[in-house]
Amino acid sequence: xxxxxxxxxxxxxxxxxxxxxxxxxxxxxxxxxxxxxxxxxxxxxxxxxxxxxxxxxxxxxxxxxxxxxxxxxxxxxxxxxxxxxxxxxxxxxxxxxxxxxxxxxxxxxxxxxxxxxxxxxxxxxxxxxxxxxxxxxxxxxxxxxxxxxxxxxxxxxxxxxxxxxxxxxxxxx
Length: 173
Prior knowledge:
By secondary structure, the protein is mainly alpha-helical. The chain has one domain. Helices cover about 70% and strands about 0% of the residues. It is built from 7 helices and no strands. Helix 1 (about 5-10) packs across helix 3 (about 50-80), helix 3 (about 50-80) packs antiparallel against helix 7 and helix 4 runs parallel beside helix 7. The longest helix has about 35 residues, at about 50-80.
């Protein structure tokens, strides 16, 4: 395997999380939540100040671009090696979970317990919606190569974002 292929495999499997069992997608969804929790704990919570919001969103955007890009660029190679939309590929979960974490209401992050509940809601909403694949996510999975690997998770992330908005505003904040 060439060095380029090995690096692509590391990214698309999120440094081996895609090989963890059971539920590799669950393992792959954790890094963005942990990154968001770390940023919030360090004072970079969305809505607290312009700088804090910028740091939080920029960090998630960088993670999103890296792992969404890995899916698109390495998708064909991953499917050739592991099969259609392989469970070893969890970069799509990282990208989708980033979407679900984008617009967290500041009031839902006001205390450590509220922040933990909000992040847990984002994580579980994304996992459930990624598994259930409501329309059009299930259909988008049929798109060939890396786009098919990625698009269903992006829609699951969008749906999870909506769920988090509702739960955070009605029950948490």
